[in-house]
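Dear Dr. K.,

Following up on our conversation at the group meeting, I've run the structure prediction for Glyoxalase/fosfomycin resistance/dioxygenase domain-containing protein from Schizothecium vesticola. I'm pasting the input sequence below exactly as I used it, so you can double-check it against your construct before we proceed with anything downstream. Let me know if the numbering doesn't match what you have in your notebook.
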Amino acid sequence: MSQDSAATKPTNGPVAPGELCWLEVPCVDPERAFSFYQAVFGWAKPCNTDGPIPGYGEGIDSIHTFMHGKLYGAFVKMSNADNVAVTVDQELPFKMPITPYLLVADLDKTAAVVAASGGKVHVPKFACGPGGAMGHAARFIDTEGNVVAVWTPPVGKC
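The predicted structure tokens came back this morning:
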């Protein structure tokens, strides 16, 4: 697939609540993963020019960001291949499959709705970046067993 330069530029305006706002792709080789997604989807080079961001949880070494249109995300370098999940593992909540993040206004209210609707908290609310500089997120398991994450930006940032 050829890369469309217009598709790699951020589009005007923030994403709306309920839209996909972040995608994490767990991997053991971020360069290999990036090459694959660039070839298949035309994704742009990682957008953090200062290099990878330190990992934020157990088993996560570093975060390598990318962008494509309104979609931002990261290739998440896992400490070992066993942490790249193909199914949800209740005993190891940071063992990850590909995880879509949806923008929400309030993580706590969303957690209550998830529970009331038959879902389960998989990873409770956590800070993204030091002190929540990149917002806060949580992961849930939907009624079908899929991991879905939700995110709120830092106050005044979105």
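Two things stood out to me. Helices lie at 30-41, 107-116. The two ends are 32 Å apart (CA to CA).

Best regards,
J.T.
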